[in-house]
């Protein structure tokens, strides 16, 4: 339940998975379709809106958090892009449209995992 926007965080997860995790490690990147590559303007606005709408529905970042916009902007400023060398550590990279409904996102991820042979065969539309 972390954004893992920094290489160090992602590397810690990969190290933990490689030291006993079972299965493949995948990278799921949530993107806003209106953002240019390397930009997060629309994603930031959508995240701020969702955080405000959920109110107290999170253990640390609440809708009424003072300086919410500043916190989000700092997070975006600290993002470290996933580089080619880092990508090789993942079985697959899946990019999903963060504006889609959760069930649609789940189907997209499952379909991609099926396409890459990382799940047993079934029809994701049956979900």
How far apart, in Å, are the first and last alpha carbons? 23 Å
Number of helices: 5
Tell me the overall shape: globular
What is the count of β-strands?
2
The spatial strand order of the largest sheet comes to 1-2
Gyration radius over CA: 16 Å
Task: Give structural notes.
The structure is a single chain. The protein has 127 residues and is mainly alpha-helical. The protein has five helices and two strands. The chain has a two-stranded parallel ribbon with strand order 1-2. The protein is globular.
Notable characteristics:
127 residues
Question: What does the secondary structure layout of this molecule look like, with pairings?
Answer:
Layout: H1 7-18, E1 26-31, H2 41-54, H3 68-77, H4 84-87, E2 92-97, H5 102-115
Parallel strand pairs: 1-2
Tell me briefly what this model is:
This protein is mostly helical and 127 residues long. It has helices at residues 7-18, 41-54, 68-77, 84-87, 102-115; strands spanning 26-31, 92-97.
């Amino acid at each position: 339940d972390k954004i893992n926007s920094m290489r160090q965080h992602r590397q810690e997860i990969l190290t933990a998975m490689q030291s006993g995790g079972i299965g493949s490690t995948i990278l799921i990147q949530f993107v806003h379709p209106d953002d240019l590559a390397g930009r997060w303007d629309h994603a930031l606005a959508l995240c701020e809106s969702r955080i405000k709408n959920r109110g107290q529905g999170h253990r640390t970042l609440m809708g009424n958090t003072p300086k919410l916009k500043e916190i989000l902007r700092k997070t975006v400023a600290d993002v470290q892009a996933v580089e080619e060398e880092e990508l090789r550590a993942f079985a697959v990279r899946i990019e999903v449209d963060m504006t889609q409904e959760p069930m649609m996102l789940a189907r997209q991820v499952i379909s991609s995992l099926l396409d890459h042979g990382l799940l047993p065969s079934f029809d994701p539309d049956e979900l």
